[in-house]
Amino acid sequence: MFSFIKKWLTPPSTDMNQLLTGGAVIVDVRTKAEYDSGHINGSKNIPLDSINNRLAEIKKYKKPVITVCRSGSRSAMAKAMLQRNGLQAYNGGSWTALKKIMNA
Length: 104
Prior knowledge:
Blueprint: H1 2-9, H2 16-21, E1 25-28, H3 32-36, E2 44-45, H4 55-59, E3 65-69, H5 73-84, E4 89-94, H6 95-103
Parallel strand pairs: 1-2, 1-3, 3-4
């Protein structure tokens, strides 16, 4: 069971820089207060509990979506929600980890 949880929380071995170069949109699913305390420049703040209500907005991006949060668990849930609704979505995990990858 623990391997399932670890696999679910671990971001896939997707080349995030390649996705970003191709125009992917970063959606930060943390609360507004968390987002306001620090985030990736250019990311969109759509808290996890708002994802389903904002699907039409996200679909209008017409680009792959990389979800991020504090640890990777909420972003994994958001990725699954988006994929169930036909969107190309990837779990970027922690926003700080993705920011480091972008700045490397």
